[in-house]
Amino acid sequence: MTETHAWKAEDFAQVNAPHVKTALTALQLTGDALEQGGAFAEIGCGTGEVARFVAERGFEVWASDASQSMVEATGKLCDGLPVTAEVCPAEQLEFPEGRFGVIHSSWVLHWVTEIDEPLRRMARGLRPGGYIVLQWTGAHPRSEGPGMFGILRDIAGSPKWKDLLAEAQPGSYEYPAEEVAKVLEEAGLELVHYEPDLPHPFSAKKTMADLPEMRERYKLAGFATQAAALGDRGDEFVDEVLTAMIRAGKTDPHHARIVARRPAA
């Protein structure tokens, strides 16, 4: 199976701690749901820290990721626990109707090519009283125009890079928080927590002095596919993108957090 993204677990683990921390914080917004056990779906399992956390609290966890490397890391970290991990892009996920007490996805939606149907499938997968917990990047209103993902796409599609990245064009998309919330509500869920502008350790305004630190982080995570495809020219591409973002004042990822619940029967 061809991977959707060139993420490698050993690289991602170097920059993943803040993402895991925010995921665990978001899950606490489900109240006592984490104490009830049952079935838990983890979309974008990364290196498995969240899957292990909830499995140790009595959940049967079904975890998925677009990266084979991530799924293998999750399997190792969760060995001996009730965790099933498999490779599956979010666009292709199917959820048994009414099965899950919690469906969680942090920092994945912005990699999904179209989210309305995946969101509706998640909603159908919740049991009465169950929760969806979502966090993602690129959630700013469309009235603000393209953000950092737009700059990335423009540079990757420029004459300098287009042919070199013919098989690795960026697959990151902006989904405003209000649009995601609307799909969930139309699917019969009620919003429990709505935070369209979520503070995050990576949200602080950046300057050129931050470029070296940003380069390493984005090579391992956000631009991993492009950096891998370009080989020795990966740093050149990443620096060009980040410099353009900094000069345009578009370094804020515009994170959002939504927790929604299916009303109890």
TrEMBL record:
Q: Which GO terms describe its molecular function?
A: S-adenosylmethionine-dependent methyltransferase activity
CDD domains referenced in this protein's UniProt entry, alphabetically: AdoMet_MTases
Q: Name one GO biological process term.
A: antibiotic biosynthetic process
* Gene3D superfamilies for this protein: Vaccinia Virus protein VP39
Q: Which residues form the Methyltransferase type domain?
A: 42-134
Q: What is this protein called?
A: Methyltransferase type 11 domain-containing protein
Q: Which organism is it from?
A: Streptomyces cellostaticus
